[in-house]
Amino acid sequence: MMDLVVEGNLYLKGEIIKGCVGIEYGKIKSVKKILKGEEHLDFGEKLIMPAGVDAHVHFREPGFTYKEDFSTGSMSAAFGGMSCVFDMPNTKPQVNSVDIFKEKLSIAKRKSYVDFGLYADGNSDEIENLGKICSCFKIYSYEMDDNLLEKKLNEIEKTGKTVSVHAEDKKLFRETKSLNLSDYLHSRPNEAEEKMVQKIVLTDKKNVHVCHVSAKESIN
User: Fold this and answer.
1) Which domain holds residue 35?
2) Which of 26, 127, 147, 190 is most buried, by CB atoms within 10 Å?
3) pLDDT tens, 146-171?
């Protein structure tokens, strides 16, 4: 008999099933359809996860380690209850080639305290080969015109990987002379995000995730 049994939906071997997680001395000891425990928590149809997954982190390594690195970032993730993170590619150098990706992967393997995945730059000339080794892609839509955006979305779709998009239309940005917060917010109107989200939706890609949506118009 386990100290604690947690019952609910579990993701196992590629599917979600009803089951139990058995815990002894604070550690997972058994995962079965039915388990008995001194204490039993039934969460019904809720999904049970061993810890959180943060699919959008910026650990800033290589190139910007004065801000953070894989060691400090992943340690913070662990303390915050995250067992897995996915790190963005806008480091220095940008993760836009197989060689640079492998260099960053080596750093992460050596320094990370949690499981991790790595994004690759979706504006790369090596999409096909990067798709064989990266976890997913990231596109900054304000760095490309509409034709290039559609081209890269098509290339990434062929790899079978998910692409996360920072969705803003640069043509709708407003000029600002100062760097204070209110002027910055004024320079990036909701319409810039809304219009880019509309463009992405019209491409009818099934593998697209829109990052950090901040405008209600984008949802509507």
Assistant:
1) 2-47
2) 127
3) 999 999 999 999 999 999 999 999 99
